[in-house]
Specification:
heterodimer, A: 161 residues, alpha+beta, Ubiquitin-like (UB roll), DNA polymerase, domain 1, five-stranded mixed β-sheet, 5 strands, 34% helix, B: 774 residues, Aldehyde Oxidoreductase, domain 4, Aldehyde Oxidoreductase, domain 3, seven-stranded mixed β-sheet, 26 strands, globular
Chain lengths: 161, 774
C-alpha cells in the first residue's frame, strides 16, 4: 500500500525496523511482528491490557500511532523477566495468587514497573493514581496491591535497584 | 478425613500458569492466530426490530481482499440455541446463524471474511440492506401489552423440552411452585410486606473480549480455538448449525481472559467455522469492546414482587417471590436464570408457606445470558433488602433475625425438589453449613455493634453498615457431568486431562492439587491439560459453580483408580500383598519398610514385565448441589447532599467447604465482591428511545479500578462437605451476590433511605433521600 512507511525504534533493547501504514496503531504493529505480550482489551485507552513503556513511561499501545514510537525506545512484557529471572513484581504476583485469567497482568506489570523505576517506594495514593489506568475484572485488585506492597516493602528495606 | 491431614489440598500452592501469564507468554486465542488468517467483520443490525426486505452482497463480494460473505441466503437455516447448556437445552431454539429478521441493535445481518480487518470493514459497509423497520418492544411492560409486536413470529422457533413456551405472547418461560398457601401465610403474619424491586442490564466485561479462530487441519477437519467456557457444548452446537458430524470438529480452549458466564455461549464459533470451511483459510474474529457490549451477553434485568409475612417473634409465615425477567431478543438461559432466582434463594430461610413464579419475556434489547450468580444475584438484592426491613419492623437485630430463620446442616427445603432446570429438582438435605460462623466472624470484623441507628446520625456525610446472607449451589444435580483422565509417565509425573474449563479461575491448579493429594505426590508432578475436545474427556464446562465440586470429584476418583494400579504394580514388583502398601510422597511404601519410587513403578509397567500403561478415566455426576454459604458486611459513606455512595470497607465471610487452594478461593471472593460493588453502584446499560445502547464503551460503562476499590477482606470459614472432593463446595459465584443488598442496607443504616431500583447512582440515592418520611 502506498502509505506504508518504515519505522525504526528500539524494541526491548534491539534496534528494529517495521513497515506500518500512517494510521496503524503501535499495538497492531507489535502483535503482527509476533510480540504477543501487549493485549487488545478495549482499543480505547481505558483497560490498559495493551500497556507498553515508551522511553520508560507507561502508555496505551492501542491508541498510540506506530510512527509515534519512531526513534524512541519501546519496552514490552517480553523484556521484563523470564522463567529463570522474573521481575520482583512478577514473583510477588505469583506468590500472592494475584494472577487469575492473566489477561491484564502484563499491562499491570509494565505500569507498576514505570512507577517503581521512578520511585521504588511509592505511597498508597501514588499507587492508586498510577495504577488507575489498568483494569482487572478477576481479582478485585486486592492481591495485586498486596504484591505491589510486598515489592515496595522490600525496596524500602534497601533492596531497591 | 480431617483438614489437618491434607498434604496438597487446602494449601495455597502457586497457580500453575501464573508465572507464564505474568511473563506475557502467548497463551490466549489471539496469540495463536496464523499470520495469513482472514479477518471477520459483521454487519450488525442498526435497528431494534426490522424485517430485511432485500439484501445485496454483490458489491461487497467484489471488494479487494474479500474471500467470503455470509448472510441468510447462503447458510443453512437451523433453529438452535446459543446458550452452552446440556442436551436437550432448557432454552428455546429461537436463533438462526443469519435470519431475515433482526431483533435487537447488534443482531447479525451479514459477515465478511477478508485479508485485512480494514478490507472486511470496507466490504461490510458495501452491503446494501433494505429494512422494513418494525415497532420495537423495549420493556417488560411493552412485551406483555395487548397487541404487542411479536419478537419471535417465525414458525420454526421451538423449545426442545416440554415446558410452556409462548413466543406469540413474547413469553419465553413461565414457571412456578407453591408450598402451602401464601395468602394464608400472609394472613397469619403480624407484619405483612409487599415490595417491588428492579435490577438493571449489566455486563460481565472480561478484559478479553469474545474471540475465536478456526482453521482446517491436515485431515480436513475444522479446528476452532476459542475463548469459551463450554468447549464440548460449543462443538455440539457448531455441528448442529453447520449440519456436520461432531467428529468433524475439534474445539481447543487455550487460556481464557475471563468469562464470568459470558462465554457459556456459542457466539462466534459457527461463523468462523463456516468461513474456514468455505474458504479453506484460517479465519479470525475478535469483538471490539463496543461489539462486546452491544451484541455480547448481559445480566438479565429482573423485576421482583416479594411478599413476606413475619410474626413478632421473628417466625416467617410467608415467603413469596414473583420474578419477571427480560431476556432480550433471544431466550438462552432465560428459563434457568429465572429458576435460580427461586431455587438458589428461597431455601435460605424457612417459612410456613412459600410461593414462586418466574416469567421471562422477549424484548428487542440485548440478550441475557449466564452471569456469575445467575439470577441469585438479582433475587438476593430483593430478598435481603426486605429481610433487613422486616427485622427493623419487629425490632430484632438483623443478624439474629437471619440466624433464627436460615437453613442449617441436616435440614432440607421443599424448594430443592420443587424447582429444577425445566423440570422438577432433586431433594436435598444440607450436609455442611457454617453460615452462623460466617455471620459471627463477619460481624466482628466490620464492627457490627457500632453501626448505630440512622435516626441518630447527622451531618452531610453519614456512615452506615449493612449486611446480607447468601447461598448458591455447586453444580446442577443429576444433569451436569465432568470427566477426567490420568496417565503416568516414566519420571513419576502424571498427565491429567480434564474437560473442565479453566477460564482464569485457577481450576487447573485446583484439580491438579486434588490429583496430587489422592496420588500421594506433589503438584509439580501433575501436568494439567484442560479442554480440548480431541484430547480430553467430556465435561459440561465452567458454569453452575461446578468445576471444583463436580469435576474435582471426577479427578479424585480417577486418581484413586490410578493409585490402585500403581499399588497393584508395586505389589507385583515387591512381591508383597497389596494391602500392605500405600503411597506416600511419590513412593510406594510397605508396612515392613519396603520402598520403591513412582519412577520405578512406571518404568516397570512400561518396559519390564506385564507391560501396560498406568492410566484411567473417571466420570462424575452428583445427586446434590450443596450450597456454599456466605455473610457479607459493608460500611458505606453517603453524601446526603449529592447522593453519592462511597464504599469504605467490605468483609465477605464464606463457607465453601474445604478451600482446595485458600489464596485462589480468597481471590475468587475478592474479585466477585468488587464486581458486585461496581454492579451495585455504577454499571448499567443505557439505551436511547430506539433501543440502541448509548454507553457501549469502558469509558462510559464504568467498572471499578484499583483507585475505586475499597479494602476487601475475604474470610474463609471451613466446613466439610462429605459429597465433595476433600470436603469442597463451590466458591466463585456466591461472592458476587452480596454487594447489592448489603450496600442497600448500609445506605439505609446511614440515612434511613431504602433503595428499590439498581444501580444506586447518586440520582437514585438522592431521590430516595428526598422521599424519606419527614
Amino acid at each position: 500500500m502506498s502509505d506504508q512507511q518504515k519505522i525504526r525504534f528500539l524494541l526491548n533493547g534491539e534496534p528494529k525496523e517495521f513497515q506500518a501504514s500512517a494510521n496503524e496503531k503501535l499495538l497492531t504493529v507489535l502483535r503482527r511482528e509476533g510480540v504477543k505480550g501487549p493485549k487488545h482489551g478495549c482499543g480505547e485507552a481505558t483497560c490498559g491490557a495493551c500497556t507498553v513503556l515508551l522511553d520508560g513511561q507507561a502508555v496505551y499501545a492501542c491508541i498510540l500511532y506506530a510512527f509515534q514510537a519512531a526513534g524512541r525506545e519501546v519496552t514490552t512484557i517480553e523484556a521484563v523477566g523470564d522463567f529463570d529471572r522474573p521481575h520482583p513484581f512478577q514473583t510477588a504476583l505469583v506468590e500472592e495468587g494475584a494472577v487469575q485469567c492473566g489477561f491484564c497482568i502484563p499491562g499491570m506489570i509494565l505500569s507498576a514497573k514505570a512507577l517503581l523505576d521512578e520511585n521504588p517506594t511509592p505511597s498508597d495514593e501514588d499507587i492508586k493514581m498510577h495504577m488507575d489506568g489498568n483494569l482487572c475484572r478477576c481479582t478485585g485488585y486486592e492481591k495485586i496491591e498486596a504484591a505491589l506492597h510486598k515489592v515496595i516493602a522490600r525496596n524500602a528495606k534497601g533492596g531497591a535497584r | 478425613m480431617n483438614a489437618k491431614d491434607f498434604k496438597v489440598v487446602n494449601k495455597s500452592v502457586r497457580k500453575i500458569d501464573a508465572l507464564s501469564l505474568a511473563l506475557g507468554k502467548p497463551s490466549f486465542v489471539a496469540d495463536y492466530k496464523a499470520a495469513d488468517a482472514l479477518y471477520v467483520k459483521m454487519l450488525w443490525s442498526p435497528h431494534a426490530h426490522a424485517q430485511i426486505k432485500a439484501i445485496d452482497i454483490s458489491a461487497a463480494e467484489k471488494m479487494p481482499g474479500v474471500k467470503a460473505v455470509l448472510y441468510y441466503g447462503n447458510v443453512p437455516r437451523v433453529a438452535h440455541c446459543t446458550a452452552g447448556q446440556g442436551y436437550p437445552e432448557p432454552s428455546p431454539y429461537d436463533t438462526f446463524m443469519f435470519d431475515k429478521k433482526v431483533r435487537f441493535v447488534g443482531d447479525r445481518v451479514a459477515a465478511v471474511a477478508a485479508e485485512t480487518p480494514e478490507q472486511a470493514e470496507a466490504a461490510v459497509k458495501a452491503i446494501k440492506v433494505d429494512y422494513k423497520v418494525l415497532q420495537p418492544v423495549l420493556s417488560i411492560d411493552e412485551a406483555l401489552a395487548d397487541g404487542a409486536p411479536i419478537v419471535h413470529d417465525e414458525p420454526d422457533a421451538t423449545i426442545p423440552i416440554p415446558v410452556p413456551y409462548e413466543p406469540k405472547k413474547n413469553i419465553v418461560a413461565n414457571i412456578g411452585m407453591d408450598i402451602g398457601d401464601l395468602e394464608k401465610g400472609l394472613k397469619e403474619a403480624d407484619f405483612m410486606f409487599d415490595r417491588s424491586y428492579e435490577t438493571q442490564y449489566a455486563q460481565h466485561t472480561p478484559m478479553e473480549t469474545y474471540v475465536s479462530y478456526a482453521y482446517i487441519d491436515s485431515r480436513g477437519r475444522i479446528v476452532i480455538v476459542t475463548s469459551t467456557q463450554v468447549p464440548f457444548h460449543c462443538r455440539r452446537i457448531v455441528a448442529q448449525c453447520l449440519q456436520i458430524p461432531v467428529g468433524q470438529i475439534r474445539v481447543i480452549k487455550p487460556r481464557i481472559g475471563g468469562g464470568f458466564g459470558s462465554k457459556q455461549e456459542m457466539l462466534l464459533e459457527d461463523v468462523v467455522a463456516l468461513m474456514t470451511q468455505r474458504t479453506r483459510r484460517p479465519v479470525f474474529w475478535e469483538f471490539t469492546r463496543e461489539e462486546n457490549f452491544m451484541t455480547g451477553r448481559t445480566r438479565h434485568p429482573i423485576r421482583f414482587r416479594i411478599r413476606m409475612g413475619v410474626k413478632k417473634d421473628g417466625h416467617l409465615t410467608a415467603f413469596g417471590m414473583d420474578a419477571l425477567s427480560n431476556t432480550g431478543a433471544y431466550g438462552g438461559h432465560g428459563l434457568t436464570v429465572i429458576g435460580c432466582c427461586g431455587s438458589k434463594v428461597l431455601p435460605l430461610y424457612h417459612a410456613d408457606h412459600v410461593h414462586f413464579t418466574g416469567k421471562v419475556v422477549y424484548t428487542n434489547l440485548p440478550v441475557g445470558g449466564a452471569y456469575r450468580g445467575f439470577g441469585a444475584t438479582q433475587a438476593f438484592f430483593a430478598v435481603e433488602s426486605l429481610m433487613d426491613e422486616m427485622a427493623e419492623a419487629i425490632g430484632m437485630d438483623p443478624l439474629k433475625f437471619r440466624q433464627m430463620n436460615h437453613i442449617r446442616s441436616g435440614e432440607g427445603s421443599p424448594v430443592f425438589e420443587a424447582l429444577g432446570e425445566g423440570k422438577k429438582g432433586v431433594p436435598m438435605t444440607i450436609g455442611s453449613c457454617e453460615l452462623d460462623e460466617c455471620i459471627r466472624r463477619g460481624a466482628k470484623e466490620i464492627g457490627w455493634d457500632q453501626r448505630g441507628d440512622w435516626r441518630d446520625k447527622t451531618g452531610r456525610f453519614r456512615r452506615g453498615i449493612g449486611m446480607a446472607c447468601l447461598m448458591q449451589g455447586s453444580s446442577v444435580p443429576e444433569i451436569d457431568m465432568g470427566a477426567a483422565s490420568l496417565k503416568m509417565n516414566e519420571d513419576g509425573s502424571f498427565n491429567l486431562m480434564v474437560g473442565a474449563t479453566d477460564l482464569g479461575t485457577g481450576s487447573d491448579t485446583v484439580l491438579g492439587q486434588i490429583a496430587a493429594e489422592a496420588l500421594g505426590t506433589t503438584i509439580d508432578k501433575i501436568i494439567v491439560y484442560s479442554s480440548d475436545t480431541d484430547m480430553t474427556p467430556f465435561d459440561v464446562g465452567a458454569y453452575a459453580s461446578s468445576t471444583t465440586y463436580l469435576s474435582g470429584e471426577a479427578v479424585r476418583k480417577v486418581a484413586e483408580k490410578v493409585k490402585t494400579q500403581i499399588l497393584n504394580t508395586a505389589a507385583e514388583m515387591m512381591e508383597k500383598p497389596v494391602g500392605d502398601l500405600e503411597v506416600r510422597d511419590g513412593h510406594v511404601v510397605s508396612r515392613d519398610g519396603g520402598d520403591i519410587s513412582f519412577t520405578d513403578v512406571s518404568l516397570y509397567s512400561l518396559y519390564q514385565k506385564n507391560q501396560f500403561q498406568i492410566m484411567d478415566t473417571a466420570s462424575h455426576i452428583t445427586h446434590k448441589s450443596p450450597p456454599p454459604f456466605s455473610a457479607h458486611f459493608v460500611e458505606v459513606e453517603v453524601d446526603t447532599l449529592t447522593g453519592k455512595v462511597k464504599v469504605l470497607r467490605y468483609v465477605a465471610a464464606v463457607d465453601c467447604g474445604t478451600a482446595i487452594n485458600p489464596k485462589l478461593a480468597e481471590g475468587q471472593t475478592e474479585g466477585g465482591v468488587l464486581n458486585g460493588i461496581s454492579y451495585a453502584l455504577t454499571e448499567e446499560y443505557l439505551f436511547n428511545a430506539k433501543g440502541r445502547m448509548t454507553n457501549a464503551s469502558l469509558k462510559d460503562y464504568h467498572i471499578f479500578s484499583m483507585r475505586d476499590k475499597p479494602p476487601i477482606k475475604a474470610i474463609l470459614v471451613p466446613s466439610y462437605e462429605e459429597t465433595g472432593p476433600y470436603g469442597a463446595k463451590s466458591v466463585s459465584e456466591i461472592c458476587i451476590n452480596g454487594a447489592m443488598p448489603s450496600i442497600a442496607n448500609a445506605i439505609y443504616n446511614a440515612t434511613g433511605a431504602r433503595l428499590f431500583e439498581t444501580p444506586f447512582t447518586p440520582e437514585k440515592v438522592w431521590r430516595a433521600l428526598q422521599a424519606r418520611p419527614a
